[in-house]
């Protein structure tokens, strides 16, 4: 194991766990010898994946299996509202597909993100060259926030603007002429006019060079009102080194926004020929059994590094199933929804190594202690054979790096 990974494993204990002091009182007095069972129900950290394939299977049992495998592993998902997908014809929307995904996520207790309000790449064909794009975006965002604003925990307000000028369509030309900072102000202000406390994300994959950090600097100088940076980590061909992973997180964190990793891709195969990353592109891949285990091992290390960084609050996989985007073997499950080695590796991390339960007994002052990962817990107190269960959150503040007084949880019987 490399020195960076050893450091990350140690740092996780500081960044992601907290000493918790449980105090049991009955009629205002401490209860000695009370048995306490602490059971983790969910991480505060968001471990997610896109859910685009749900509901598309012909057989109901396949949709049920998708749900079972997804919810066993993840607590977060992203719902697609790419403009050309969602509104392929003017005011004709891709429903009930997206609404079904929202309802599915709600039934399964998943946090949800809308992706994405403004994005230059997927411009609908019906948007004319001389269209008033700002007016059309006003209509689009108004429709989405009016109908779905209360359904989402996070919103990608804009996506990949640093590469806007690589495209030539009515949206990219509008962003170029109006100005990226003006576009971001327009998007954030309009979204917040419907939901003032909306959690807004700016996402980008172009994160390796100075262009990205210059863009973030401009965002700060222009007081762009977002809440999170979204660092995409598609690694279909070139996998990030441990040093590059840490460098990117450290540099981005300097700007003071918490970080989400919204689109992480690692393949269990290698591309045949040059990879085409365009929307709807098809590629060929060479896949071996060794590639399956290489994907799992790299992902385990990558997740360890990302989870260890105090600025990061979410990490999502793209895609849950194999061979959906770019035809890539980038899923954590196969086409027929069988877990791959990478699925098992992630389960071991999220639900074993980074999971905490405790069985405790209070002392003379009615107190006992445990060190727990931040998250949601059921706490059952047993006194003389009578059990009482309460649910409590043990939550972490952004950028918390360890230390401080124990968190106190008082249970009054």
Key attributes of the depicted protein:
20 strands; alpha/beta; 11 helices; about 425 residues; about 35% helix; globular; four-stranded mixed sheet
Question: Would you kindly provide a written description of the structure presented here, covering whatever features stand out?
Answer:
This protein has 413 residues and is an alpha/beta fold. It has helices at residues 3-15, 60-73, 83-86, 97-107, 133-148, 170-178, 180-194, 210-221, 242-253, 289-308, 341-353; strands at 17-26, 29-30, 35-43, 46-50, 76-80, 111-115, 118-119, 154-159, 200-204, 228-231, 233-235, 259-266, 270-272, 284-286, 312-317, 358-361, 367-373, 375-383, 386-394, 407-412. An eight-stranded parallel beta barrel has the order 4-5-6-8-9-10-12-15, surrounded by four helices. Strands 1, 2, 17 and 20 form a four-stranded mixed sheet that branches. β4, α2 and β5 form a beta-alpha-beta unit. It is globular and about 75 Å long. The model has no long low-confidence stretch (mean pLDDT 97).
Structural class: alpha/beta
User: What is the strand arrangement across the widest sheet?
Assistant: 4-5-6-8-9-10-12-15
Q: Give average pLDDT, whole number.
A: 97
Termini distance? 48 Å
Largest sheet: 8 strands, parallel, barrel
Give the strand content.
25-35%
Spans with pLDDT under 50 lasting ≥5 residues?
none
**Approximate shape:** globular
Number of helices: 11
Number of strands: 20
Percent of residues in helices comes to 25-40%
Radius of gyration: 23 Å
Short description:
This protein is of the alpha/beta class and 413 residues long. 34% of the residues lie in helices and 27% in strands. It contains eleven helices and 20 strands.
């Amino acid at each position: 194991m490399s020195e960076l990974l050893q450091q990350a494993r140690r740092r996780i204990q500081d960044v992601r766990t907290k000493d918790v002091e449980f105090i049991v009182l009955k009629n205002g007095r401490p209860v000695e010898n009370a048995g306490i069972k602490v059971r983790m129900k969910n991480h505060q950290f968001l471990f997610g994946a896109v859910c685009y394939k749900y509901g598309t299977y012909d057989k109901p049992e396949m949709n049920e299996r998708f749900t079972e495998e997804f919810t066993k592993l993840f607590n977060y998902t992203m719902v697609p509202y790419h403009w050309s997908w969602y509104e392929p014809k003017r005011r004709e929307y891709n429903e009930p597909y997206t609404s079904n995904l929202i309802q599915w996520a709600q039934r399964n207790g998943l946090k949800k993100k809308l992706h994405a309000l403004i994005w230059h790449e997927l411009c609908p064909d019906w948007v004319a060259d001389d269209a008033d794009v700002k007016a059309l975006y006003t209509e689009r965002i108004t429709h989405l926030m009016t109908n779905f604003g209360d359904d989402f925990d996070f919103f990608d307000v804009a996506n990949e603007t640093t590469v806007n000028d690589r495209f030539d369509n009515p949206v990219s030309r509008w962003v170029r002429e109006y100005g990226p900072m003006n576009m971001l102000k327009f998007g954030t202000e309009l979204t917040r006019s419907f939901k003032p406390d909306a959690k807004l994300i700016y996402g980008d994959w172009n994160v390796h060079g100075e262009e990205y950090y210059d863009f973030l600097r401009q965002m700060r100088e222009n007081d762009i009102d977002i809440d999170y940076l979204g660092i995409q980590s598609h690694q279909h061909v070139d996998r990030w080194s441990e040093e590059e992973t840490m460098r990117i997180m450290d540099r981005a964190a300097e700007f003071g926004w918490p970080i989400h990793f919204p689109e992480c891709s690692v393949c269990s195969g290698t591309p045949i020929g040059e990879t085409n990353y365009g929307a709807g592109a098809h590629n060929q891949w060479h896949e071996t059994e060794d590639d399956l285990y290489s994907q799992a091992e790299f992902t385990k290390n990558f997740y360890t590094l990302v989870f260890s960084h105090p600025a990061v609050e979410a990490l999502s996989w793209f895609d849950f199933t194999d061979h959906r985007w770019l035809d890539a073997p980038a899923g954590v499950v196969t086409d027929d929804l069988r877990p791959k080695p990478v699925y098992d590796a992630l389960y071991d991390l999220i639900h074993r190594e980074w999971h905490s339960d405790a069985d405790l007994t209070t002392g003379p002052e009615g107190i006992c202690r445990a060190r727990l990962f931040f998250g949601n817990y059921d706490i059952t107190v047993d006194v003389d054979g009578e059990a009482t269960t309460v649910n409590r959150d043990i939550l972490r503040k952004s950028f918390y790096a360890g230390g401080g007084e124990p968190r106190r949880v008082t249970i009054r019987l």
